[in-house]
Specification:
single chain, 72% helix, 7 helices, mainly alpha, elongated, 0% strand
Length: 183
C-alpha cells in the first residue's frame, strides 16, 4: 500500500509543481509574450498587408534577404506557424529552402523573442534556468543562439537550394524561379 500512496503523492506533486510554474509564467513571461504579439499586430496594421506581401516578394530575389531577413521578419511579425505563410510569395524553386531556414529560425530565436515559438518556450526556459544557476546571464546565451541561428539558417537555406536543384535535375522536374501570385 505504501508504494501506491507514494506513487499517488508523487503523481500529484508533479501537477502541483507544474501549477506553480504556470503561475510563475503568468506573472512573468506571459505578459511579455502578449505585449510582443500586440506590437507585432500593430506593426502589420500600420504597414499594411500589401506592403508586407511586397516586402516578401522582393526579398525572394536575393539569397541573403531570402534566408536571413525574410525569415527573421516573418517569424518576428507572424510567429510560428503563421510565419510559414510568407512562403507563398516565394518562387516554387525557393519554397523548400525558405521553409528550412524559417523552421530553424523559429527555434533559435526563442530566448530573445519568446512570442515567435511559444510552444517550445519551456525548452528555452529550462536551459535558461540552468544557465542562471551557474551565475551566468541567460540573455548573453539568447543573443548568441540567435546570431548563430541566423547564420546556420542561411547556410541551411542555401544548401537546400542546391539539394532542390539536384532533385529537380535528377527527376526531370522544372520549378519556376519567378514569383507568380496569380495561381
Amino acid at each position: 500500500m505504501k508504494y501506491i500512496t507514494d506513487f499517488a503523492s508523487g503523481f500529484m506533486g508533479l501537477f502541483q509543481t507544474g501549477a506553480k510554474t504556470f503561475i510563475g509564467w503568468m506573472s512573468s513571461i506571459v505578459p511579455v509574450v502578449l505585449l510582443l504579439l500586440v506590437l507585432m499586430n500593430t506593426i502589420i496594421a500600420f504597414l499594411g498587408e500589401e506592403r508586407m506581401e511586397k516586402l516578401a516578394k522582393s526579398s525572394s530575389k536575393n539569397v541573403f534577404t531570402r534566408y536571413m531577413l525574410l525569415p527573421f521578419l516573418a517569424a518576428f511579425m507572424l510567429g510560428n506557424p503563421m510565419s510559414f505563410t510568407l512562403g507563398r510569395f516565394m518562387p516554387e524553386f525557393y519554397k523548400p529552402s525558405y521553409y528550412a531556414a524559417l523552421a530553424q529560425f523559429n527555434h533559435t530565436s526563442n530566448g530573445v523573442f519568446p512570442h515567435i515559438n511559444p510552444g517550445e518556450l519551456f525548452i528555452w526556459l529550462g536551459i535558461a534556468q540552468g544557465v542562471q544557476k551557474l551565475g551566468l546571464n541567460s540573455m548573453d546565451l539568447a543573443i548568441r543562439y540567435l546570431l548563430v541561428g541566423l547564420i546556420m539558417n542561411f547556410i541551411g537555406g542555401w544548401v537546400t537550394d542546391y539539394t532542390t536543384a539536384y532533385v529537380c535535375r535528377t527527376s526531370g522536374v522544372k520549378l519556376s524561379k519567378e514569383v507568380n501570385l496569380s495561381k
